[in-house]
């Protein structure tokens, strides 16, 4: 058997929320992201179970407890230096606007610090091919929702592909999408690397646009430049009239972004693409909720439970 996904389920003594949460981790991570923090504090899984949710921790296929097989393709892994510059010591090493606002990582964020070393010990190999990753996420995600029924999806970074593909295939089973710093921006790489990516706008394998598109070249796109905020990158958008994403429309969708993360420079591009395609999307920057200093891995940072509490309020307001 190949392409299987290991899913850990945690249930409260009394279930008080109508829909379970499905948590999906990002690149080179595992579902330990949700179980606790590198410095030993409670994680989001405990928090949301205490609020009365059933929690499903989805381990991406070919990663961690979802076994990788030699025929699955080549893998790669973050170096410690990459993690320092991307996630943990960005106030010192980050090269993007607002990187120096990062204050919430526990400890120094550098090699030799106990919290960093614990975080690095949790890293795993990740499949190089984004196309193969997306296909496996789509297939395993659909199988999961077919088994458990309606759910709210909570995805981080690369796992946004899970949100878009599973919702596209099973829109009646997705009650809400919470995309934490989702993979982006549309159509290209920014900040780290250049060139085309997400050739279907949000993904690298097809989504069901309306009118239908048989090839990504049929999505007519144009570059839009913003000037009111200098730290925001220009965006690729569809030329009007834009194709819609009917299976994602009508489902409450939240894009949540940390103040000091590199995603803060382009998250608006992903929100604009979704909005233009008819999706009910809300972009929230944590600093606008008086939650400051967060980087990309904010579910592990010192104020992680403040962010979890915001998400619980958003769910109560928009979904449950």
Termini Cα gap: 37 Å
The number of helices is 9
Strand order of the largest sheet: 1-3-2-6-7-10-11
Q: How big is the Rg?
A: 18 Å
Overall number of strands: 11
Overall number of structural domains: 1
Structural topology:
Layout (H helix, E strand, L loop, with lengths): L5 E5 L10 E4 L7 H4 L8 H7 L4 E5 L15 E2 L3 H9 L1 H4 L20 H8 L4 E2 L2 H19 L2 E6 L3 H10 L4 E7 L40 E4 L10 E4 L14 E5 L9 H10 L4 E5 L18 H15 L2
Parallel strand pairs: 2-3, 2-6, 6-7, 7-10, 10-11
Antiparallel strand pairs: 1-3, 4-5, 8-9
Helix pairs in contact: 6-7
Which terms summarize this structure?
single chain, 320 residues, alpha/beta, Rossmann fold, 7-stranded mixed beta sheet, two-stranded antiparallel ribbon, 27% helix, globular
Report on the structure:
- It is a single chain.
- By secondary structure, the chain is of the alpha/beta class.
- It contains nine helices and eleven strands.
- The chain has helices spanning 32-35, 44-50, 80-88, 90-93, 114-121, 130-148, 160-169, 267-276, 304-318, and strands at 6-10, 21-24, 55-59, 75-76, 126-127, 151-156, 174-180, 221-224, 235-238, 253-257, 281-285.
- The longest helix is centred in the middle third of the chain and has 19 residues, at 130-148.
- It is globular, with a radius of gyration of 18 Å.
């Amino acid at each position: 058997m190949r392409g299987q996904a290991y899913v850990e389920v945690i249930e409260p003594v009394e279930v008080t929320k109508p829909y379970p949460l499905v948590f999906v981790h990002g690149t080179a991570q595992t579902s330990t992201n949700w179980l606790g923090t590198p410095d030993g504090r409670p994680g989001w899984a405990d928090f949301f179970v205490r609020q009365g949710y059933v929690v499903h921790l989805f381990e991406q296929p070919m990663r961690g407890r979802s076994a990788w097989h030699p025929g699955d393709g080549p893998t790669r892994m973050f170096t410690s230096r990459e993690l320092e510059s991307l996630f943990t010591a960005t106030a010192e090493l980050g090269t993007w606007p607002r990187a120096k606002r990062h204050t919430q990582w526990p400890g120094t964020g550098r090699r030799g610090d106990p919290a960093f070393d614990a975080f690095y010990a949790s890293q795993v190999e990740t499949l190089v091919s984004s196309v193969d990753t997306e296909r496996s996420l789509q297939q395993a995600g659909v199988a999961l929702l077919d088994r458990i029924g309606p759910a709210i999806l909570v995805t981080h970074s690369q796992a946004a592909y899970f949100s878009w593909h599973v919702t596209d295939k099973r829109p009646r089973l997705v009650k809400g999408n919470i995309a934490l710093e989702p993979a982006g921006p549309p159509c290209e790489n920014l900040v780290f690397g250049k060139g085309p990516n997400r050739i279907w706008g949000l993904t690298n394998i097809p989504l069901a646009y309306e009118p239908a598109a048989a090839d990504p070249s049929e999505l007519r796109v144009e570059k839009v430049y913003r000037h009111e905020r200098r730290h925001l990158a220009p965006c690729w958008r569809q030329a009007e009239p834009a194709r819609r994403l009917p299976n994602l429309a009508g489902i409450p969708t939240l894009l949540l972004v940390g103040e000091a993360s590199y995603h803060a420079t382009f998250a608006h591009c992903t929100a604009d693409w979704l909005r233009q395609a008819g999706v009910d999307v809300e972009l929230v920057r944590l600093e606008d909720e008086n939650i400051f200093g967060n980087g990309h891995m904010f579910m592990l940072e010192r104020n992680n439970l403040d962010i979890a509490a915001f998400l619980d309020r958003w769910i109560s307001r928009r979904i449950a």
